Each structure stands twice: as C-alpha cells, then as structure tokens.
Amino acid sequence: MSIGAVRHWRTGRRRSPEAGHSLAERTTYCPVCANGPLDGEAYAYLLGLYLGDGHISKSRRGVYFLSIYCANEYPTLMKMCADAMGAVFPVSSFQVARPGCVEIKSASKHWPCVFPQHGPGMKHSRRIVLAGWQEDVVTRHPGALVRGLIHSDGCRFTNPVRRRVAGEWKHYTYPRYMFSNTSADIIAILGHALDRLGIAWRLRWRTHTHPNHQPTGTLSVARRESVTRLDALVGPKR
User: How many CA atoms lie within 13 A of 108 on its CB side?
Assistant: First the structure.
C-alpha cells in the first residue's frame, strides 16, 4: 500500500469503493472546469497565502502539489492553512519539515485551475493578474484575502518614535502593519482589497544595492483606526 493511500485512510478522506465514482465523477469538485461549489471565504484566504508564500509543482504522475510555507513559530496558522485547503478542495494535506519552517502540501490535478497565476519562475518575474471569477470572490471576501496575505508576508509590530516637541525629545510607540513583497502586482492586489475595506495604506519601494536583489515594496498601515480595523480582520499570528 502506498504512503498516499495510508494517509487517506488515516485522515478518513479516502473515497469508499462502494461509492462507485468514476474518475470523471471524482473530479467534479473543481469550481472552474466542473462547476463544483467553492467556499469563497476559504478560497480568498488560501489565495492570499498562495500569493505570499506558496507555489505549485507537478509530479511525474501529472498530479499538482500546492505548497504553502509557514514559520515554525506559528502552529495555529499551519492549521488554518490546512483547513482552508480542505475547505476549497476535498483533498487531504500533509506537512513536510523544512529548515525553520513547515511546508504544508496538498495534491490535486486541479490546483492550477483555481490558481491560474501558477507559472514558471518567481512571481515577481511575471504578471500576476486575477481572473474575472477571482475578482468576484475577492470583492465578496476582501477581508479573507487580506488576512491570508498578512499571515504570509506581513507582520504587526510596535513602532518606536523619537520626536522633538517644543525643544524636548518625546518618545512614544504605536502599532503598525507591514507587508513586503517584490511583486508590484501582488502588492497592488493587497492595496485594492484594503481600499474595498476603507483601510488607509502607504507604499514605499526599496532598491537594494546588491545587483541580484529585486526592489522590495513595503505596504504599511499605521493610522489608528485602520490598525484597529485590521486587528479585527487579521487577528494575531501564532
């Protein structure tokens, strides 16, 4: 018995033989090529994770693997990622330990259907444009997309400030969100989602001196009311 078969039996997601499903019937879950149902909120969250820290690879047997990378210190986010994969497609996921992180993987021939942004090379080296149906999902669930993007390539931290006021130095701190990425298209997708939510943001590009490093865009949210709104939408990374 293969490792995949054992995994399916262990997770309880192996299709029973008495169900009599043909191969064509077994793939009716794809919302793109088979008109299957789609959990919009789970998909928008998974899309954010994929755009930030994910990729799709193809096995020798023609099966595609969706991989999302999560730092070891965030076990709750690992579970949220696996839950989102299972909500989008009725397939199991598994974890592969990597240096400093965990690769969360799930196999299906249809991952490229729901993530048409898949392609050769790094994401910053090609255009990343949402398909029309993806735009519809994101329009309905902008908060879930923002949550996925922040959980992947974003952070919340306390920003220290030292400022001279009336001749005296004042020290204070304030919370701030930041999202960094080398793809201008991905940053624009996040910016449009924040606009839909009425959350103010700023963008700054940093050009590295090393010739092999790509310019990095950093989107920040610092206004008090916007940070409070993001706190309710994103939640802590843990």
Answer: 24
